[in-house]
Amino acid sequence: ALLIIHSRAERLTDKQEQDVIKYIEYEINRFDVHDENTLNKCLLHISELFKPYMKYGLKAWNVPVLDPLFLKTVKVPQNENGNNFKADFHSVWVYGLSDYTIDYISSQPSKYSFDMKIKFPDLKMLGQYDIDGKVLILELKDQGPFTANLTNVDATVENKFVVRNGHLVLSESKTDFSFKHMKFYLENLLKGSPVGESINESLNKNVDDLMRELKPAFAKEINRIIVRTLNKSVESLPLAKWQAAIR
């Protein structure tokens, strides 16, 4: 049975964390890997093992709390992706990342890589924004709190590894995501005037275009978190197990 810590504490005690890590390592070591298919199942098993602990983090493995995920700052430089504005989203909290299902995991053993598709039913973001320039066709220069709700989110993650000192080390991660619906709200636009409300309505009517300009910056920061998070979990997978899948 999966070891689950029933606690409202923000993080595990050192003893609980040691027990969790021992359990994860035990589960990984006992998994039989002998081809691509069994490697895929093993990687899926690792992903499911971590799921209950995303709200706690694993300090010994340098895995931060992932639900909610804290993003210190996400900067959108002007003209980075054809956009005519610069923006700084900071003190951003993302809720709902532990409520996921994995659609598939597909490994390429000889290339030391695997891809995965993850589904999230509902993600919520809140934080602070500072924006200056033309967003879509609107001139904005404001700052304040923001919220965003995304539903039916599909994320694809491509991971590549290198072998270093007898261990797998994540060298590159690429994330892309799409969603069925998004509600985006910038508080304090034009001091909360009716015109500011109209601007929010306009942004939401063109949310796909808006996200096309914002997504690369958020994906870049999420990739950084993924590399930091996955490295220790992947290092717990013995290199011999991965190489046993190479044909």
Automatic annotation (TrEMBL):
Chain coiled-coil ranges: none
Entry's Gene Ontology BP terms: circadian rhythm
InterPro entries tied to this protein: Haemolymph_juvenile_hormone-bd, To_sf
Keywords: Biological rhythms, Signal
UniProt cross-references to Gene3D superfamilies, sorted A to Z: Haemolymph juvenile hormone binding protein
Superkingdom to which the source organism belongs: Eukaryota
Listed PANTHER family: PROTEIN TAKEOUT-LIKE PROTEIN, RE70318P
Protein family (similarity comment): Belongs to the TO family.
Protein name as it appears in the record: Takeout Protein
Organism of this sequence: Epiphyas postvittana
